[in-house]
Amino acid sequence: MALRYEEVTSEVTKLLHKVLADHFGELKNAKIVALFDLKKRMSGGQIVLGRIVKTNHLIRHLTKEEAGSAEGYDYIITIDKKGWEALADKDKVRLLRHELRHTYYDIDSEDNPYKLIDHTVNDFYEEIELNKDDPKWRQKAATMVTDMYEQEKEEAREKRAKQKKGKNRAARNA
User: Fold this and answer.
1) d(Cα 95, Cα 87) in Å, to the nearest integer?
2) Distance, CA of 100 to CA of 19 (rounded, Å)
């Protein structure tokens, strides 16, 4: 059984830390790990380029050593690997920033201040301002990555058809 996820490169980790430092000071103590998703993920009919999840108690326990913290990781960001490799550097920053916008630091929480939230109106306006040079970056990236998956699927179909044709030819000649 092949695993769905793999470790990200140091380039991704460095960029994640830069985006955190530049835009999300409230998360400076949060433990966040990023992983590449090796399979296509869809939601609402659209490809998912990135996703952030809050860890549960089990995951937190299992990641204590890796996170270097008695509490383990607070968040896990998964990034479509094909998409990441195809994105321009600016869009990589946009993707990480977008996912981190789903976080919320609840200063009044005694148990765990790190929460997840849906998009807010403030985030919407802030993202519009930050992406004014390319407001449709997400749609363009999603189309590009979807096309890449479709091309891969078509190539696999052609390969299977070619193999089947070769087997049929071999059976007739036998």
Assistant:
1) 9
2) 9
